């Protein structure tokens, strides 16, 4: 499965898909459980699960006649990596602002 970070963001851009991921973080669930939890129609839930599965965010396993869905934590890595770049950049900027404000404070104290 070769999807890009953009594909992952596209998949979670839809609110109901994020709601499904939130529900599945709590543990694996069957479609019927997600339908009841999210108050969505079964075809809608199935469609959203298919999109999430296609990008690898959700995986399914057979349990008798049902399929149980869960989040694949390994696929969250690209999000974490992408966000980490921006987190570091923002941290660096905040450090520079902090240094600048401390310098202004020192200058104010010496005047």
Give the CATH level 1 class of the domain at 5-72: Mainly Alpha
What's the overall geometry?
elongated
The helix-strand sequence is HHEHHEEH
Fraction of residues in helix: 55-70%
What gyration radius follows from the Cα positions, in whole Å?
Answer: 22 Å
Spell out the CATH superfamily of the domain at 5-72.
Answer: Winged helix-like DNA-binding domain superfamily/Winged helix DNA-binding domain
The count of DSSP E runs of length 2 or more, i.e. the number of strands, is 3
- CATH architecture annotation name of the domain at 5-72: Orthogonal Bundle
Low-confidence stretches: none
Q: What share of residues are in beta strands?
A: 5-15%
The pLDDT mean sits at: 90
**Order of strands in the sheet with most strands:** 1-3-2
| Structural class computed from helices and strand pairing | alpha+beta
> Total helix count?
5
The CATH topology of the domain at 5-72: Arc Repressor Mutant, subunit A
> Main beta sheet: strand number and arrangement?
3 strands, antiparallel
Task: Give the termini distance in whole angstroms.
Answer: 64 Å
């Amino acid at each position: 499965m070769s999807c890009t970070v953009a594909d992952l963001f596209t998949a979670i851009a839809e609110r109901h898909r994020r709601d499904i991921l939130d529900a599945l973080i709590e543990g694996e669930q069957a479609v019927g459980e997600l339908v009841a939890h999210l108050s969505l129609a079964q075809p809608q839930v199935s469609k959203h699960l298919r999109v999430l599965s296609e990008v690898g965010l959700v995986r399914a396993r057979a349990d008798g006649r049902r399929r149980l869905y869960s989040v694949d934590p390994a696929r969250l890595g690209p999000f974490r990596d992408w966000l980490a770049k921006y987190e570091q950049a923002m941290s660096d900027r905040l450090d520079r602002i902090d240094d600048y404000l401390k310098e202004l404070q020192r200058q104010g104290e010496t005047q």
